[in-house]
Amino acid sequence: DIQLTQSPSSLSASIGDRVTITCRASQGISNYLAWYQQKPGKVPKLLIYAASTLQSGVPSRFSGSGSGTDFTLTISSLQAEDVATYYCQKSGFTFGPGTKVEIK
Amino acid sequence: EVQLLESGGGMVQPGGSLRLSCAASGYTFSRSAMSWVRQAPGKGLEWVSSISGSGGSTYYADSVKGRFTNSRDNSKNTLYLQMNSLRAEDTAVYFCVKQLSLVGDYWGQGIRVTVSP
Q1: Which of A38, A40, B15, B109 is the most buried (most CB within 10 A)?
Q2: How close, in Å, is residue A33 to chain B by CA atoms?
């Protein structure tokens, strides 16, 4: 089975900082990767699918890249409302363990 | 507007059974694959099971294979998860998720399942 790892497991950054989260698959998954945002006490929300396609309505400060085994989610300018845990998912199946993003 | 409403959760003893339902509205239910995803208290997301739009194909995580059955009734726009031989580690909030090209574009609010003596 394909396993996903994420790094870091948590991070603290200042408003306006560029934030990068990495997701690594145990074997190649082409571009079958999605990213979700889960704010505290809320339902997960789809941010990006097919590794780099922004879901409708998601702010453009979010972007995704990668293919094969290595993927990144980037927040170009961190905002207070971005405090959340971010999960990668091999499309339709396994989730990564999550990365918790906090404001410094 | 897409709506997914889970029901059927609650508390059950180890070894017991529960059936979750998810009533869908606001889109053509039969055209979308559906999934169940769970989240144990304070933990991350865990994919549980997926089912194709017709119901003809189902997929399960190893942790639930042989114990859980994912099914759907397209005439009733409803998704089901029959959970048997429940264990303490099945305690979680269970989300019903609409799939669009293998990603979850709409999520229900979740239903709590507690397995405890």
Answers
A1: A38
A2: 9
